[in-house]
């Protein structure tokens, strides 16, 4: 979708923003032909998926099925298949590792401490991500600076020392309104939980709807402090003292 084609639906500034995003994704493809989009199937990732699929890019899109996702989240996979005729690659955790963790700590141990929650995330998300990224030169995320305190200094691209490859955050400076303006203008499929007060969606027992004025990621691991709300997928994110809010 070109800037010109978007002009009737979007104002000029956002049309330029969309054009720049597509140029950035094309540049990533030129530099790292084996790069892949790690999609949580959330709004930002659906916008990026549309940019890749509708633009004819052959970059892979993959997601992590933790075994505890909402039915609505898994339903997005069907919506993508129907809309674009392409499959999102699904990575799942090692069943044995999950069983051992649950047997030792219980099915809801993540509520007991940050350490146990991160241990669960390590098994269900980080380990599968490592498999998904193995052998690649780069990966792409839908992170934005205004999402949380841990993402306030997010760069467009960075050397990801945690996983040993390059990392791109092409939506880093986009705000919530811009993301949704493009989604609605282009009719991009999205998770229906977003319409029920869930701007950030993870595993079902670890996600709730947010209240007015709360941080966009306040519904993720809501029993923890705001500076701990990462699962290990983005371990290199820096914490800043100001909490990002939605106006």
TrEMBL record:
Primary localization: cytoplasm
EC number: 1.8.4.10
Places the protein is found: Cytoplasm
Reaction it catalyzes: [thioredoxin]-disulfide + sulfite + AMP + 2 H(+) = adenosine 5'-phosphosulfate + [thioredoxin]-dithiol
Residues in Phosphoadenosine phosphosulphate reductase domain copies: 36-209
Origin superkingdom: Bacteria
Entry binding sites for [4Fe-4S] cluster: 120-121, 203, 206
Pfam families linked: PAPS_reduct (PF01507)
Cofactor: [4Fe-4S] cluster
Active site feature: 231
Gene Ontology biological process terms from the UniProt entry: cysteine biosynthetic process; hydrogen sulfide biosynthetic process; sulfate assimilation, phosphoadenylyl sulfate reduction by phosphoadenylyl-sulfate reductase (thioredoxin)
Alphabetically ordered keywords of this record: Cytoplasm, Iron, Iron-sulfur, Metal-binding, Oxidoreductase
Cofactor note: Binds 1 [4Fe-4S] cluster per subunit.
GO cellular component: cytoplasm
Matches recorded under InterPro entries: APS_reductase, PAPS/APS_Rdtase, PAPS_reduct_dom, Rossmann-like_a/b/a_fold
Pathway entry: Sulfur metabolism; hydrogen sulfide biosynthesis; sulfite from sulfate
Transmembrane segments: none
Gene3D superfamilies per record: HUPs (3.40.50.620)
One annotated GO molecular function: 4 iron, 4 sulfur cluster binding
UniProt keyword Repeat present: no
Role played: Catalyzes the formation of sulfite from adenosine 5'-phosphosulfate (APS) using thioredoxin as an electron donor.
HAMAP family reported for this sequence: CysH
Protein family membership: Belongs to the PAPS reductase family. CysH subfamily.
UniProt name for this protein: Adenosine 5'-phosphosulfate reductase
Natural source organism: Achromobacter agilis
